[in-house]
Write a structure and sequence with these properties.
The chain is an alpha+beta fold. It has 9 helices and 22 strands. Strands 12, 13, 15, 16 and 17 form a 5-stranded antiparallel sheet that branches. A 4-stranded antiparallel sheet has the order 6-5-8-9, with no helix packed on it. A 4-stranded antiparallel sheet has the order 19-20-21-22. β21 and β22 form a beta hairpin.
Length: about 450
């Protein structure tokens, strides 16, 4: 209004200047700024959430490395992969350490039972470790036991192979038994003696004592098939038992056979009766002679279980080779003797126009009839032969076929005549076909060609 009045009074060029307060100017709506959270406040609000997540993760992790299924799965994997060191580790405790060999023996025993290990372990898991694998004789074999708790919450478990209790009864005097590497235990005669608990595996005990036929020192093996309710009773009483020994086929012509049992000769019988203890370990071999040479079989180890124990002996390869050489030498000598005797009989028959050789032939053969015709039927006489003078007899080869022998020779002899015909040397290659007859041979065929 003042400016308007001034203008009306002639102040038209008066400059106008206006200043308005911010509060008087038109205002745009202003958004409220977000309040910023401090680092300290972030930690206070986020810490519990992260801790809860960590605890949940830790729970699931610790739960995954403990529990019955964890240890049974680990055991099944070690068995499947034949990792016997790991099997031993899973079975071992501070007071009972398993060796790799023992773990392997346990796995072999389990496999011999033809059980489905995976199924049996699943049953143990389903029972939360309250059940165990039990065999047909009510022996507990495998299970789990509580071990410790992680942080007092998560239960850990230990694989368990349940032991077998062993007791012994013997009628031996001054008897002792030594379980593996453990201390020797003195046994009372005809009294049950508790030996303690042992791993449920095959293992050796060394028994010593005296019998009427001398001292006994033998390895006794736990027979797991006799275990019932995780107990085995070893009845180690000395009784007469029979061995039934089979000699190798190469020794059919052997003489002076001697059977050796645990280092002592027991005679030449192949069915000896000896004072033995059940489950006694025997080392058996035989000595024998062929062509004035003594040989020895391999040593065989057997366990006495029944009243009769079968023993099949074998030979080292080098012994088989030497026996074959000896047999060939003996056979060649035998054939040589036979043929020399046969030739002498033939030469004698030629001189006398007779038959002194029938024992050397199969008399039903054609070659025998030809020889008879030659010596007694006029053949020698017509040829004007006076006699034969023996020459060389060289045996070049002896082959055996289907129980018969084919003998190839080179022979020569000088023919003397009854007239003025000059003496002549006959050289022949002969093949004799011989078959055994008693302790000798007979000729059933003969082939001759010029030498």
């Amino acid at each position: 209004e003042e400016f308007a009045e001034a203008k009306s009074q002639g102040f038209s060029n008066l400059p106008i200047r206006s200043e308005l307060l911010d509060s008087q100017l038109p205002q745009k709506p202003v958004k409220k700024a977000k309040k910023r959270i401090s680092k300290k406040q972030a930690i206070m609000f986020g810490g519990p959430t992260l801790l809860l997540a960590a605890l949940i993760g830790a729970f699931f992790y610790l739960n995954s490395i403990t529990g019955v299924k964890v240890v049974t799965d680990h055991f099944a994997k070690a068995v499947s992969s034949k990792d016997f060191d790991e099997v031993a580790s899973l079975l071992s405790t501070q007071s009972d350490k398993w060796t790799r060999a023992e773990a392997r023996a346990l796995v072999e025993h389990i496999e011999s039972q033809e059980i489905n290990l995976e199924t049996e372990l699943d049953n143990i898991v389903e029972s939360n470790g309250k059940s165990a694998y039990i065999d047909d004789n009510n022996n507990k074999i495998l299970g789990v036991t509580e071990k410790s708790k992680k942080f007092g919450i998560f239960q850990e478990y230990q694989m368990v192979s349940y032991p077998v209790k062993v007791k012994v009864n013997t009628n031996l005097d001054n008897a002792t038994i030594k379980p593996g590497e453990k201390k020797t235990i003195t046994l009372k005669k005809n009294t049950d003696t508790e030996l303690g608990e042992y791993h449920f595996i095959k293992q050796d005990f060394t028994l010593k004592g005296k019998t009427d036929v001398g001292d006994v020192e033998s390895k006794v093996q736990l027979d797991l098939a006799t275990a019932k309710d995780n107990e085995i009773k070893l009845d180690l009483k000395s009784e007469k038992k029979q061995l039934k020994i089979t000699m190798p086929s190469e020794t059919s012509k052997a003489t002076d056979i001697k059977i050796v049992v645990n280092g002592k000769e027991s005679g030449s019988s192949l069915t000896p009766e000896l004072q033995l203890v059940p489950y006694q370990e025997l080392e058996i071999y035989a000595k024998f002679t062929i062509s004035d040479t003594t040989f020895t079989t391999n040593k065989e180890t057997v366990i006495v279980e029944d009243d009769t124990t079968n023993v099949k002996l074998s030979l080292p390869k080098e012994v088989v080779s030497k026996i074959r050489e000896k047999n060939e030498e003996a056979q060649k000598a035998k054939v040589s003797t036979f043929l020399n005797d046969y030739r002498s009989a033939v030469f004698s028959s030629v001189s006398n126009r007779s038959n002194n050789y029938s024992q050397y032939y199969d008399t039903s053969s054609a070659v025998y009839r030809e020889m008879v015709e030659w010596t007694t039927g006029g053949g020698v006489k017509k040829a004007k032969i006076n006699y034969y003078e023996p020459g060389a007899l060289d045996i070049r080869e002896i082959k055996e076929e289907n129980g018969s022998y084919i003998v190839t020779t080179y022979e020569d002899y000088t023919v003397h005549y009854t007239d003025n015909t000059p003496n002549s040397v006959n050289r022949k290659n002969k093949t004799y076909y011989l078959k055994p007859s008693g302790d000798s041979f007979v000729i059933y065929n003969l082939e001759v060609s010029e030498g």
